[in-house]
Amino acid sequence: MATIIQPKDDKDGVTNECKKLLSSLPKERGWRTEHIYLFQGYWCQPKQIQAILSFQSHFHALDSDLVLATIPKSGTTWLKALAFAIVNRHRFPISKSDHPLLFSNPHDLVPFFEYNVYMGNEDPAGYLSGLPSPRIFCTHIPYSAMADSIKSSRCKVVYICRNPLDTFVSSWIYTDKIRSDGVPPLPFEEAFDMFCEGKIGYGPFWDHVLGYWNESRERPDKVLFLRYEDMKADVVSHLKKLALHLGYPFSEDEEERGEVERLAELCSFEKMKELEVNKSGKSIMNFENQKLFRKARVGDWVNYLSPSMEERLRKEIEARFQGSGLSF
Ligand code: A3P
Q: Which residues surround ligand 1 with Cβ inside 6 Å?
């Protein structure tokens, strides 16, 4: 397994060229950093913008690459674990007591383009060529901003989306826990207004989801669109779909032997949350792993949103997704 580079969460580290670009972009207060900027139609932090530019200029997808995509807090950690376990199950049998997922957080097994691969590293050719095949990547980058070679190659893309009410609540709670030094807390009501106005990392939420949704409808062989709630309701049938799309379908024999159920169990919230590495370790951006595992409950938003907030967000969602074939 290749070692994943975890960039530090420092404020500096953007080039003068990027600083010049930032000065020309619309800017808002950030959720966990000082500011976010509207870049190619989406709200991002400065170092992410620099990394996305490098990714767009330099990344060459291979037909065998697998790309997992999400907007933050919609099930990224879960999807990384599932894809890693599916693709590597012959190399790392699910029932073995030394399975990598028992000792590493999924973010240390599947790199993000914009954090681990391209943040602070314009052209990491050496790192990329050292990755085992098939290379599995993850990203929060919207479909429209993907490197061209991802769109034109035969590499597969999987997107997971989550109900926006739960995504908002999960985002606010998480970003409050990982705020950068010196950044004041973002009050819940203010964060809610920002979410409704689309001002959330990699948002607007609806544009992010619709980018992948529309592509999955036009090119179902290319993009598999999954929903967090459907996966929670019936993980086994979605695992079979996921494995098939990734090009690693379960055999009849594996199904009969209960391998799909075992894989689901290995990657379940309850199992992962209790692992020592996820209770005490650090991974993505050096944040504590335990913060990635909160409740994983569908509909937890009812404990946070007032009836008027719910009504406002539902109206927004209805308007934004009208005619798309997708509803929440
Ligand atoms: P909650 O905050 O609602 O608990 P992401 O991985 O994209 O950051 O998403 C985080 C959300 O996924 C959190 O939701 C977290 O609890 C939940 N989660 C983490 N691991 C999971 C797993 N193995 N299965 C299902 N949900 C998981």
A: 70, 72-78, 166, 170, 267-269, 272, 292-296, 300
